[in-house]
Structure formats: structure tokens, C-alpha cells
């Protein structure tokens, strides 16, 4: 009876997923890749606490046939969990991991990984590797539309979890490593028709094109391969962009190369640029700025401010004013950082010329993978801490001059790890208002992981580690509370949700989705 | 590097495709081939290729032959077996091969004959198909979505689904009735079920995620919930219409 009430009656009401509901999550539900629009990945759930986390047990595992590298954060809504893989998506009964439906775009081209789905109204959305946006009815998996928004044959691919806002499903593209022109597009939630598109590399004669020295915009890169964040009050979308192309050789693109390695503030209604901030002008180290732009409001230096913070691949933790784009503060969150002598008062780095890659090879810290990357950080307003997975590593980067040809495999040459200095991962808690490291949790392992975090009001932070464990640590102290070895390497960030009064934690691991909850004695 | 592998791969794909191009796919050829097949082959391989004295042409080796081998096997037979040779001229060999291919090809690639418009009218009208099925968001529940059926099934399978729905029940669409301990009865299709839970989609498109403990009686049906169509002419038009439902027409044609 209880289940009949909990599951059937709300479904009869057939409420739509609204932008307001998304803005108010994550609570019992997890409604975007990030959990909500702010990308804080902080859930209001508090059943799991530092005291009881040790009694977490596995509740179910769902195996995805043929999956090699699940990277998605699932979405959970009304008892269903949506988990996507390359060119396919499953809806599972979130209490027990039973498949309810499966949609596979069998004829899709491309094999790129997939980072997740979006939900709005009565639909769930995901992209295929060949840049189709697919809309399905969220209860039945029935196809509503399948539209192309970029040409696979022209070299575009994608892995993005779309972001659903009132007037559009926002999507982006990969291409920083192969020479395509990046863009963010809003597609109509009911039809998939394009509402607006913002090119991240300005066309000839447009503002910003002077920062490329005549390099063709079509090959500029600045891809948009991760999910942005959104402020419904300001009605601004914050979208991060990737590196200019070719990655490691900047000789043919003299200048700052706007809008590569930026966060863009775009008007949600029109896609017009309100402001931009560039973290790494004229990048020759492949330091995409695609890390999550996290939105929060706080009193900063005595003044209430709307902030945007990001732990960037280039090694700095940045604080910006998200109304104006004003640079407020930055601080390194890794010690292995040697490419700059510091930032000026507008946040522009002073690059050390010896750190520009040469044909002979140049040792640079952080590594190409970056001080952090797309693995999700989280922020707990109660502790004032920003939880980020950091990588201490340097690389040898080799750059060579060559005529750049898009999709040719050329990236300006490449990078190599330094065998005697393997990378080490840490979960670090930064003071959100100044970037100081308050505690850290070292994560020994082979240096392969791309797992992120979720924070909870219960005072527990969950993270994947470099050894395939899902780990729970105390949000205040970083003390290790519990861990579970998935037997896989981790390339996804955990999420949390609640059903029938029970809090669950889920992480996707290579080919399987693992879900945990407190031991119930049955 | 990845690109390089990809282009080698696409070169292989192209040559494979060129290889497979020897056999026509147009519906007049398939239809002519069907006539020959019914006379010369169906006795041993079954009217729909399901096999009897000769092997099934729908699965196993015979369904995966390269174009040239298929043509050779028909023309020259398989010496030492009861598969005879058919010295009937290359046009006819091509036609019968076209029909053999159509038995396993996605319906979208075989473009079966029939009045597509009439099939569509019947689907959304007198046939009441759209009360249970959707195509691109138009229609009802709880039958499977048919938006991409032309890429997922052969014409033969579609025809069978229409005329003999119970012959093969689509996965996740078995009829189910669950009497809840709390009183109500829920009917629909079982998206999934085991000893512990059942997930039911009802005719209004609502999902019921149930634990077996809440269910007094669970009845899974062996027969399809779908009524069969006996009118062969309407069925032919329906197949023509449904065969053309593919979300990615061009790619669909290349994928087999």
C-alpha cells in the first residue's frame, strides 16, 4: 500500500518537471547532471551522516552490456533513474536497479562516451556521439524527436549532458583536439529546433576575431564539451569553453584566442554574450576551462555578492562576480604549478616564457590532464568548503610547427607523463571565499581516475578515488568514514537521492551502476 | 591516432559495402525474386526462409554470406549436399538473391511494396493501431514505439507482428494484470518483472513500480495484448508504411 501511494498516485498526477523544481533540487531528486542549475552538487539530504556512514551497504548493481567507460551522472525523478552510455540510455527502477526501458540509437555514428541526460516537462534528453539531440517520453522511452545540431562528417562529436532550461535544451560539442569551431546551442524543448547558437570562436570581423592573427575560425576549437550552469534570476547561462586548436602549438594563432579557455555569461533568452572571463589566454598546454562553473551567493570582503567559482585545469581556483564577470580572487590549489609567476589584478597570468612548449620538449606543471578536470567538484554552504579532486602532476610537452589541418590527428604534437613522477590525486576542501586548503584526503592509485564528488547536508562528502573505491568522508574534517571497492576504475561523479524515506548514493563505474544505502536489516 | 584507425575502418567499411552492392535492393527485384523463391527454394528453406530440409536463411552462416558467395552458392549449388545448382541466368540469380537478402534486411532497406499513404491512414484511423502505438510522439500506449521500426525489424517480422501478434512478443511488452493487496488492479505490459518487483506500463502511459509484496496476484499473459489483423491487403499497406518508419533513413540504409 505504501508503495502504491508513493509511486502510483504522484504518477497519476503526472506533474511536469519544471525549471523551478530543477532550481530547488537536489533534494529527494537529482534533476540535472549537476543536480541543479548552480552546479554546487550539494544535496539537502541528511539521512546519511558521519555517524552512520559506516553502515552503508550495496543495494543493487546494474550492468550495462557493452559499456566500457560510463561517465554519466544519472538523473533521478519519480522513482526512475536515467543512466546514459554511448548512444543509449536506460531508465531503471531506482529502488532496485531493474530496467524499465532502454533506448538505443543503433545507427548513430561515433563511439564517444556520454556524460548524461537532462529532464524537463515530460521528456528526457540525451545526445549521441554524432551530435543528435534525442528527446524521449520520460515514462515510456518513446521517441519524440531526433535532431542533428552539428555535422559528424565535418568532424563534430559530443559527449555532453544537456542542460534543460525553460526555453531550450542547451548542448555543446567536442573538438578542441581536432580543429572544429565550438558553439553552445539552445534547442527547443518540444521540437529540437534551434533557438539560438553562440559561436565560441568569433567569425571574420566580429569582436574577438582580432585575437587570432588571421587563423581560420572554423578550426579554432574552444569546444563546449561539458555542462554549464544557470542563474534563473539573472537569466544568464554560464558555459565553460575548451582550448584553442592546435592544442600545443600556438605559432599560427598569435593572440589571446577568444573565447577559448573562458567562462561565458550568455543571455538565456537570446544567447548573446553578456561577459566573458578568460583563464588561460593563448593556451599552449591544453588547459580547457571546461571544469564546472559553480554558482553561489556569499558575503565576499564585506559585500554580498553573486559569485561564480571554478577550480581550473591551469591550477588556480578562481572567484568571479557572476553579474559582471569581474575577477575577484584566485589562488593555486596544487603545489605543482610552474607556468606562471602569478596573476595580475585582473586575473591575467604572467606566463614564464621557458614554459612554452618547444620541439625539444618542455616540462610543465600542472600536467595536460590539469590540476583538475571535468570531474565534478561540490560546495557545502554549511561548511563553506569547496570539495575538488586535484591532481599533482607535471608533463613533458612537445610542440612542433606544422601546417594545421582539421581532423588530421594533428594537435601541435603532444604530451607525455614523466615516469619517475607519477601523478597523485587528492580530494581537497578549499575555503570557498579564498581558496585556502582546509584539509585533504590523499588518494593513492594508478593515476587513472576521473571521478568527482557530491556533498550532502548530512555532512558527508562522497567521492570516487583513484583505486576504484566510492569513499565517504566527513565534510568538516576529511576523515575517512566508509569505502566500497567497485572493482572498476572510476570515471564518473556520484549522486544522491531519496525514495520511500531511504537515502541512496549512486556512482557509475566502467560497465556498472552501483547504488548504496544504509543497512536496514533486510 | 584514433582518426587514423577510424579512416582505415571506414576504408574497410566502404570496400565491404562495394562488395555487398552486387545484389539489387529495389522492390521490383525483390518481388521478382520472391516469385522465383516460392517456386524453387521454399520447399527446402521454408516460405519465409525459416528453414526445413535446408538451413534457415534468417540466421547463422546463410544469413551472413558476402554477396559473391551468396550468388555463387545459388548459381553453382553446394556440391556434396542437397543444395542444387540453379543455372538460370544472372538476372534471375540476382533477383532471388535480392529476396534472400530482404529476409534479413531491415525493412527500411527493402522498401516493401504497398500503398504507404493508405497504410498510414489505416494506422491512425480504422486500424486503431495508434491507440496503442506511437510514432514520433503521436499515438497511445502501451504498445512499443514504432518510430524506428523500419530499421529494427525486417518486413517479414513486421508482417508477422501484424497478422500473428502472439508469435513473438516484443521484449518488455508482455501483457500483465496485477491485483494489489490494497485493492486496485493494474493492467498493462510488464516492462520487467522478477520475484521481487514488477514494473508495469498501463494504457494511459503511466508507470507503476511495484514490489511483489504489494501484489496479491500477478498474471503474465502468453498471448499478445495486440489484436491480430486478418485483412491481408491492409496488412500489406501497413507493412509498407511501417517499413518506412526510421529515425535515420540514410544511415539505416548503410548499416546492414
What's a concise summary of this model?
Chain A is mainly beta and 522 residues long. Helix content of chain A is 3%, strand content 39%. The N terminus of chain A is likely disordered.
Protein architecture, described:
- The complex is a heterodimer of chains A (522) and B (256).
- Chain A is mainly beta and 522 residues long.
- Chain A has a single domain, classed as Quinoprotein alcohol dehydrogenase-like superfamily (Methanol Dehydrogenase, Chain A).
- Chain A is built from two helices and 38 strands.
- In chain A, the strands form ten sheets. In chain A, strands 1-32-33-34-35 form a five-stranded mixed sheet, with no helix packed on it. Chain A has a four-stranded antiparallel sheet with strand order 2-38-37-36, with no helix packed on it.
- The radius of gyration of chain A is 22 Å and the shape is globular.
- The relative contact order of chain A is 0.14.
- The N terminus of chain A is likely disordered.
- Chain B has 256 residues and is of the alpha+beta class.
- Chain B has three domains: 104 residues, Cytochrome Bc1 Complex, Chain D, domain 2, CATH 1.10.760.10; 70 residues, Cytochrome c-like domain (Cytochrome Bc1 Complex, Chain D, domain 2, Orthogonal Bundle), CATH 1.10.760; 47 residues, SH3 type barrels.
- In chain B, 41% of the residues lie in helices and 14% in strands.
- Chain B contains eleven helices and seven strands.
- In chain B, the strands form two sheets. A five-stranded antiparallel sheet of chain B has the order 6-5-4-3-7, with no helix packed on it.
- At the A-B interface, helix 1, strand 6 and strand 10 of A face helix 1, strand 4, strand 5 and strand 6 of B.
Amino acid at each position: 500500500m505504501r508503495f502504491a501511494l508513493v509511486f502510483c498516485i504522484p504518477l497519476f498526477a503526472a506533474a511536469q518537471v519544471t525549471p523551478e523544481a530543477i532550481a530547488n533540487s537536489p533534494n529527494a531528486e537529482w534533476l540535472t547532471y549537476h543536480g541543479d542549475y548552480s552546479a554546487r552538487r550539494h544535496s539537502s539530504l541528511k539521512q546519511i551522516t558521519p555517524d552512520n556512514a559506516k553502515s552503508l551497504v550495496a543495494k543493487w548493481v546494474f550492468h550495462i552490456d557493452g559499456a566500457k567507460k560510463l561517465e554519466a551522472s544519472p538523473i533521478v525523478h519519480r522513482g526512475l533513474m536515467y543512466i546514459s552510455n554511448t548512444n543509449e540510455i536506460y531508465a531503471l527502477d531506482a529502488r532496485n536497479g531493474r530496467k524499465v526501458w532502454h533506448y538505443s540509437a543503433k545507427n548513430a555514428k561515433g563511439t564517444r562516451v556520454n556524460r548524461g541526460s537532462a529532464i524537463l516537462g515530460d521528456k528526457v534528453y540525451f545526445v549521441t556521439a554524432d551530435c543528435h539531440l534525442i528527446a524521449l517520453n520520460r515514462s515510456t522511452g518513446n521517441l519524440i524527436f531526433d535532431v542533428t545540431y552539428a555535422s559528424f562528417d565535418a568532424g563534430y562529436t559530443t559527449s555532453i549532458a544537456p542542460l534543460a532550461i525553460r526555453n531550450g535544451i542547451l548542448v555543446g560539442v567536442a573538438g578542441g583536439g581536432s580543429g572544429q569551431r565550438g558553439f553552445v546551442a539552445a534547442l527547443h524543448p518540444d521540437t529540437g529546433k534551434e533557438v539560438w547558437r553562440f559561436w565560441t570562436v568569433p567569425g571574420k570581423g566580429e569582436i574577438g576575431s582580432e585575437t587570432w592573427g588571421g587563423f581560420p575560425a572554423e578550426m579554432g576549437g574552444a569546444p563546449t564539451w561539458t555542462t554549464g550552469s544557470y542563474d534563473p534570476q539573472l537569466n544568464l547561462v554560464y558555459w565553460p569553453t575548451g582550448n584553442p586548436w592546435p592544442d600545443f602549438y600556438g605559432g599560427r594563432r598569435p593572440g589571446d584566442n577568444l573565447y577559448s579557455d573562458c567562462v561565458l555569461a550568455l543571455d538565456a533568452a537570446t544567447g548573446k554574450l553578456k561577459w566573458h572571463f578568460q583563464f588561460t589566454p593563448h593556451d599552449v598546454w591544453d588547459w580547457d576551462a571546461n571544469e564546472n562553473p559553480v554558482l553561489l551567493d556569499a558575503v565576499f570582503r564585506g559585500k554580498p555578492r553573486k559569485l561564480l567559482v571554478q577550480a581550473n585545469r591551469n591550477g588556480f581556483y578562481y572567484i568571479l562576480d557572476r553579474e559582471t564577470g569581474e575577477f575577484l580572487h584566485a589562488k593555486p590549489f596544487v603545489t605543482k604549478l610552474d607556468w606562471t609567476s602569478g596573476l595580475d589584478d585582473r586575473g591575467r597570468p604572467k606566463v614564464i616564457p621557458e614554459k612554452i612548449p618547444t620541439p625539444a620538449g618542455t616540462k610543465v606543471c600542472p600536467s595536460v590532464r590539469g590540476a583538475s578536470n571535468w570531474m565534478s567538484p561540490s560546495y557545502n554552504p554549511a561548511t563553506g568548503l569547496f570539495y575538488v579532486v586535484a591532481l599533482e602532476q607535471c608533463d613533458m610537452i612537445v610542440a612542433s610547427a606544422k601546417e594545421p589541418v582539421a581532423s588530421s590527428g594533428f594537435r601541435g604534437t603532444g604530451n607525455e607523463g614523466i615516469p619517475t613522477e607519477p601523478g597523485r590525486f587528492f580530494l581537497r576542501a578549499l575555503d570557498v571565499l579564498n581558496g585556502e586548503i582546509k584539509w585533504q584526503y590523499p588518494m593513492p592509485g594508478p593515476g587513472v581516475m576521473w571521478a568527482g564528488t557530491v556533498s550532502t547536508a548530512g555532512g558527508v562528502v562522497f567521492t570516487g578515488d583513484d583505486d576504484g573505491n566510492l569513499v565517504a568522508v566527513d565534510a568538516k574534517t576529511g576523515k575517512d568514514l566508509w569505502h566500497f571497492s567497485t572493482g572498476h576504475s572510476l570515471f564518473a561523479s556520484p549522486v544522491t537521492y531519496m525514495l520511500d524515506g531511504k537515502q541512496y548514493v549512486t556512482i557509475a563505474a566502467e560497465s556498472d551502476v552501483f547504488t548504496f544505502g544504509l543497512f536496514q536489516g533486510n | 591516432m584514433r582518426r587514423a584507425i577510424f579512416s582505415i575502418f571506414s576504408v574497410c567499411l566502404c570496400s565491404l559495402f562495394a562488395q555487398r552492392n552486387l545484389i539489387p535492393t529495389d522492390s521490383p527485384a525483390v518481388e521478382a525474386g520472391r516469385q522465383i523463391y516460392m517456386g524453387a527454394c521454399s520447399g527446402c528453406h521454408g516460405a519465409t526462409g525459416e528453414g526445413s530440409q535446408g538451413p534457415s536463411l534468417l540466421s547463422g552462416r546463410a544469413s551472413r554470406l558476402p554477396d559473391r558467395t551468396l550468388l555463387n552458392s545459388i548459381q553453382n549449388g553446394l556440391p556434396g549436399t542437397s543444395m542444387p545448382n540453379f543455372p538460370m541466368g544472372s538476372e534471375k540469380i540476382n533477383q532471388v538473391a535480392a529476396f534472400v537478402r530482404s529476409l534479413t534486411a531491415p525493412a527500411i532497406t527493402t522498401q516493401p511494396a504497398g500503398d504507404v499513404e493508405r497504410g498510414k491512414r489505416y494506422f491512425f484511423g480504422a486500424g486503431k493501431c495508434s491507440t496503442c502505438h506511437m510514432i514520433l510522439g503521436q499515438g497511445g500506449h502501451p504498445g512499443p514505439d514504432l518510430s524506428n521500426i523500419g530499421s529494427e525489424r525486417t518486413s517479414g517480422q513486421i508482417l508477422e507482428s501484424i497478422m500473428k501478434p502472439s508469435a513473438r512478443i516484443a521484449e518488455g511488452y508482455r501483457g500483465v494484470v496485477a491485483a494489489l493487496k490494497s485493492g486496485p488492479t493494474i493492467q498493462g505490459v510488464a516492462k520487467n518483472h522478477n520475484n521481487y518487483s514488477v514494473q508495469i506500463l498501463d494504457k494511459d502511459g503511466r508507470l507503476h513500480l511495484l514490489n511483489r509484496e504489494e501484489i496479491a496476484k500477478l498474471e503474465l499473459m502468453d498471448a499478445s495484448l495486440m489484436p491480430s489483423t486478418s485483412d491481408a491487403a491492409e496488412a500489406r499497406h501497413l507493412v509498407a508504411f511501417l517499413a518506412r518508419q526510421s529515425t535515420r533513413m540514410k544511415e539505416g540504409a548503410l548499416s546492414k
